[in-house]
């Protein structure tokens, strides 16, 4: 590993194939985990990220390098071999990869490291977006985002540095392909987050929380249910989206 630009600003983007099916794992990591091939894949990814961090530390760039680790979607529930599930786990959240609106497909951890600037061990529980990477990187580089159009992303630095307590996203729109499936609204000056679902995938089997018969949930057609009025949830009180609100019980 060799840093040509260690004395100048650099942007390194690493898009890992790991923990994506098919679970390609090198011989060295096969059988390393108690959690089968998926676990081996996680172990190998962890090792690869570790190698990158080691080089940054060795080149004495640790305190001047902003590192952001995240995923583009939640765990893939339909991935399985025989009876063993291979695609990750989304905790209390409903749904997973390829489902435009359910929290299990959207919520992913974001891990940030910048020892010279950001204190370690800080936990921020605010929704941000991968669209925020662009304005964040532009700000870090001392640039300005284009002013001739609306930017969907917001810089993450005020949130990370604690100068702002809340995400700048009042609304987040969640698409499945080109189809709008859900919208989240963080009501200003209140801790309440509402989520409206306009379309949701039809789970097969119904109680499984995934589309096992199709292999992955579709975005449109007979594989989705359209909701009019939309399904509405109070995410602040019901993060697992188990209890849709009704106009009778929640007229407001």
TrEMBL record:
GO CC list: endoplasmic reticulum
Domain named Sulfatase N-terminal: residues: 5-142
Cofactors demanded by this protein: Ca(2+)
Annotated keywords: Calcium, Hydrolase, Metal-binding, Signal
GO molecular function: arylsulfatase activity; metal ion binding
Any Pfam family the entry gives: Sulfatase_C
Signal peptide residue numbers: 1-26
Keyword match Hydrolase: yes
Family: Belongs to the sulfatase family.
Protein name: ARSD Arylsulfatase
Organism encoding this protein: Loxia curvirostra
């Amino acid at each position: 590993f060799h840093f040509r630009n260690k004395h100048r600003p650099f942007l390194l983007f690493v898009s890992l194939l790991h923990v994506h099916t098919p679970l390609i794992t090198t011989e060295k990591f096969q059988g390393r985990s108690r959690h089968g091939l998926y676990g081996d894949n996680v172990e190998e990814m962890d090792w690869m990220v570790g190698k990158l961090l080691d080089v940054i530390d060795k080149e004495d760039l640790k305190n001047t390098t902003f590192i952001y680790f995240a995923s583009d979607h939640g765990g893939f529930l339909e991935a399985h071999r025989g009876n063993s599930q291979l695609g990750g786990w989304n905790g209390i959240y409903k749904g997973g990869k390829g489902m435009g609106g359910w929290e299990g497909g959207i919520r992913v951890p974001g891990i940030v490291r910048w020892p010279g600037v950001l204190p370690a061990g800080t936990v921020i529980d605010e929704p941000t977006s991968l669209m925020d990477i662009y304005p964040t990187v532009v700000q870090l580089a001392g640039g300005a985002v284009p002013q001739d159009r609306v930017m969907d992303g917001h810089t993450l630095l005020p949130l990370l540095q604690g100068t702002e307590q809340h995400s700048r996203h009042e609304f987040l729109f969640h698409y499945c392909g080109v189809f709008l499936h859900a919208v989240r609204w963080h009501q200003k000056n209140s801790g309440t987050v509402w989520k409206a679902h306009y379309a949701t995938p039809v789970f097969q089997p119904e109680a499984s929380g995934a589309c096992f018969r199709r292999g992955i949930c579709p975005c449109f057609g007979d594989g989705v249910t359209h909701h009019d009025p939309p399904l509405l949830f109070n995410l602040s009180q019901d993060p697992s989206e188990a209890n849709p609100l009704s106009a009778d019980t929640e007229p407001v």
